[in-house]
Description:
This protein is mainly α. It contains 14 helices and two strands, in the order ββαααααααααααααα. The protein has helices spanning about 30-55, 60-80, 95-100, 105-130, 135-155, 165-205, 240-250, 260-285, 300-325, 335-340, 345-370, 375, 380-395, 400-425; strands at about 20, 25. This is Ureide permease 2.
Amino acid sequence: MDLSGIPSLIALPTESVLAIGLNMYLVESKGGAIACMLLALFFLGTWPAIFTLLERRGRLPQHTYLDYTMTNLLAAVIIAFTFGEIGTSTAEEPNFLTQLSQDNWPSVLFAMAGGVVLSLGNLATQYSLAFVGLSVTEVITASITVVIGTTINYFLDEKINNAAILFPGVGCFLIAVCLGSAVHTSNAADNKAKLSIISNDDKTQSGATDVLVSKETHPIIVETKDPENGSSTAEKAKFGSADFLIELENRRAIKLFGKSTMIGLGITFFAGICFSLFSPAFNLATNDQWHTLKDGVAHLTVYTAFFYFSVSCFVIAIVLNINFLYHPVLNLPRSSLRAYLTDWNGRGWAFLAGLLCGFGNGLQFVGGQAAGYAAADAVQALPLVSTFWGILLFGEYRKSSRRTYILLASMLFMFIVAVAVLMASAGSRE
Length: 430
């Protein structure tokens, strides 16, 4: 049957978003790339909120991450066997299964290196979320990613993005990371002041030299349903109050009282460095700028590269988190593989987080292949989404000082400006 006339029967815009027909399913226009970025923005800004929710319910982060990494790999497999298999395999654009048997190991190794650093970054993120909160974690890591990663991608992509627009956007992200640190410092001081009031009251009433943070000294957990943690509370402490901070400390998995805020910021900056390297590695995997492939071997398609990327991410996550079950960090309780397998509390949410992150990363890479990976780093606007979840679900910044609110508003404003500028720098790959 002759199918050559079918595409002419379908009315498509002049600058088509997708190459449809017998070719591989690829995003080709700026509009399509931006659409992918916006969807990736929502997905990548939401999964950390789910991690925060589960940690605040008391679920061990090792258990959550093991669940997450299963569905994160599943997302890559789904993408590879759907979009990666659409259309006829050609020498220039081989499909997913064809590329598995090709001699493309230099590009495969770049893709897998990207998966390794992403896995380390995500692993660090789940701990930094507890220490510095959802909003600040996402702002700092995203800003470092843009400052370093975007600069590397700009030169790797042979400057297809407009430098006069791109680098002012990078500068805005750099300002945002400084403001993010200031927000955390100010909010930590606000929380310390709230807790000191209770400490002073307890000392006055009992003459005690130390405040014991427990349900006995602050009996706020009684019998009604709490929608966040699934437990029973009759009088739920108000967001932002000292009692709320103590209640949260009682039930969360990672205990923070008495720990230095510098630990949290150190973990956060480490995560940001890891995140800044995974996109350039993926760029090298799909475009072979260093000419590591043999003549006649096709570049990895974005779908094949994402599969290898996700496999290495999966392996690193499994090895490290099984080790953390038996040798936990940050004074977390010791667990076991058997305890993990029987822990179904919040497992569905963890599975959802993995899918969101997997599809979010895939969409980011698809958009980057079309409009340049430097512009695709605009998806690092995810703190705009995570800050919304942080305020709505977790009461971040409630009852904070005026100084904290001013810094928070300034940080978000600079972030919005940076994202708009980065998207305006989008180019077109030849």
